[in-house]
Amino acid sequence: MSGQPTRRPGDRIIRRRLQATQVIELPPPPERPSVPNVRNHAKMFALGLLALVVGGGALLSLPWFSRTGEWTPFIDALFTAVSATCVTGLIVVDTRDHWNFGGQFLILALIQVGGLGFMVGASLLLRALQRGVGSLRDTLLLQDGAPTLSLREAAELSGRIVRFTLVMEAIGAVVLATRFAFDRPLHIAIWQGIFHSIAAFCNAGFDLQGGFRSISDYRESYVVNVMLMILIQAGSLSYLFFADIALRRRFKRLLLETKIILIVNVLMLVIGAGVFLGAEWNASLVGVPLIDRPLVALFQSVSARTAGFASVSFHQATSITLFAWVAIMFVGGASGSTAGGVKLTTVGVVGLAVFSTVRGQMETQVFGRRIPTALVFRSMAVIAIMFMAHFIATLGVVISEHLTGGDVPFIDIMFETMSAIATVGVTTGITPHLSGAAKLVLCATMFFGRLGPLTAVYALQLRQHVVRYKFPEAPIRIG
User: Fold this and answer.
1) Do 65 and 99 meet the contact criterion of CB atoms below 8 Å apart?
2) What is the Cα 432 distance to its own chain's centre?
3) Which positions ≥6 away from 283 have C-beta within 8 Å?
4) Strands 369-371 and 364-366
5) Distance from first CA to last CA of the chain, Å, rounded?
6) Which H/E stretch holds residue 442?
7) Could you list the residue range(s) of the whole structural domain that residue 76 is in?
8) 3-class SS at 366?
9) Of 89, 224, 366, 375, whose CB neighbour count within 10 A is largest?
10) Cα(216)–Cα(225) distance, rounded to whole angstroms?
11) What distance in Å separates the CA atoms of residue 75 and residue 399, rounded to the nearest whole number?
12) d(Cα 378, Cα 391) in Å, to the nearest integer?
């Protein structure tokens, strides 16, 4: 009957004879255990990152963390905290020269929490989104904001990522400290080994060499260069990538995502090293022995993938290299890693879509698999969003410098803003000389670059709806 209330699942019917003044108190419903929720997880993740940035900036401004014992200007302290938490590496004051041990330790803590926290959080969120499209039930749960990962699954995945991170950082710290011990006291070598190992794995370009030199003092050291490259690649390719390789071992058996990451990563490394070697042979590589130039070029190519270390001065780099590096930094690393950028899979999917279209295929196909058209559209949307954000950031810095009478070359500004939005940290040396407004623009850019691609993927995933009808097609002329 229409007048009767609808009985819902879980409702209980209680029949009992009552007295006129008797009141029945129903027991409260049992509390449900707290479980991972995709929407809440994303919000808490962003708010946690913001709290780290603000809290870290406030602490670093205190006089207890500077070598001189004086207050650090809040804009400079905030910039350092944002750069460390977002694992970028852009600095306005030299890390060794300005901060004492307490300040360096605080910066390292922000790097570790920002890098490891992002890797764990992004991996859980992406795994939940991936699980959410696996079945009708999971899709409905995802759309309702319900969990698609159990507590046990989330805890196990988080534990494996943490163990992987700590093992890699420990190996790097031992190797680097051993090499540094030849040049400085043991206790300083150990501290610098730990600092550089964590910064490299988390893809943060902070260093303790002093004088804004990054690791140029060790550009001919194969031990330092190779170890840093291993750490950078380990952090930028994610635990999920290496876990799939360890599980399947053969290329044919790898997941399609792993294959795309592997291929695009190798291509980016080779192209970057080749471009740098050719463009800088008679420029920034002039003072490097011929036998060491390929190593230096390869290191710059690896570091450009959001690590931020530099063994040569990009202030001396040619415009060819700076422009090419804008594109390389834009790509970044793998999803769910410590790296920034639009991610290797995003670029790989769009590249495969273009290749399939040129070949006359109606759908994107590779290795006997078909990539959903919706995924191609989402990849294109992420790239377009990041392009627009880079344009706005560049325009903001240009306007800020113009209003304050600054005279910074446009190519340097474009390079700097891409380094910020892709959380790379490579610079031509203009960062300390920017105006306060420009520094704030870069702070917002680094924060957006850290969360932007992941937020875009999450939002686009949840906005996707199944359409049960199609409109008539309409031809449009292009080209």
Assistant:
1) yes
2) 23
3) 316, 317, 318, 321
4) antiparallel
5) 62
6) helix 436-463
7) 38-463
8) strand
9) 89
10) 10
11) 18
12) 20
Instruction: Give CA–CA dist 341/383, Å, rounded.
Output: 9
Query: 369 has which bridge partners?
Result: 366
Q: Which residue has the higher pLDDT, 373 or 97?
A: 97
Q: How far is the C-alpha of 296 from the C-alpha of 312, rounded, in Å?
A: 8
> Residue 25 to residues 10, 11, 28: CA-CA distances in angstroms?
18, 15, 9
Helix, strand, coil percent values for the chain (each to nearest 5)? 65, 0, 35
Q: Rounded to an integer, what distance in angstroms lies between the CA atom of residue 236 and that of residue 165?
A: 12
Q: CA–CA separation, 71 vs 69, rounded Å?
A: 7
CB 388, CB 417: distance < 8 Å: no
Please say whether the beta carbons of 107 and 84 come within 8 A: yes
Separation CA 149–CA 270 (nearest Å): 38
Q: Would you call 371 helix, strand, or coil by DSSP?
A: strand
Nearest to 302 by CA among 227, 244, 352, 241: 227
253: left (phi over 0), alpha (psi -120 to 50) or beta: alpha
- Specify if 248 maps to a domain: yes
> Is 20 within a domain?
no
Structural domain contains residue 471: no
Residue 206: closest CA among 226, 225, 192: 192
Give the number of C-alpha atoms closer than 13 A to the C-alpha of residue 123, restricted to the C-beta side: 28
Q: Are 37 and 147 in contact (CB under 8 A)?
A: yes
Q: Which residues pair with 370 in a beta bridge?
A: 365
Tell whether 470 is covered by a domain: no
Q: Give the residue, 25 or 474, on which the prediction is more confident.
A: 474
Give Cα 65 to chain centroid, integer Å.
Answer: 27
How many Å apart are CA 97 and CA 210, to the nearest integer? 6
Instruction: Mark out the alpha helices in 332-404 (DSSP H runs).
Output: 344-358, 373-403
pLDDT tens per residue across span 237-288 = 988 899 899 998 888 889 899 999 999 999 999 999 999 999 999 988 998 9
Q: Which two tokens stand for residue 257?
A: 């995502």
- Tell me the pLDDT tens digit for each residue of 370-425: 888 888 888 898 899 899 999 999 999 999 999 988 788 999 999 999 999 999 99
Mean pLDDT of 195-217: 92
Length of the chain: 479
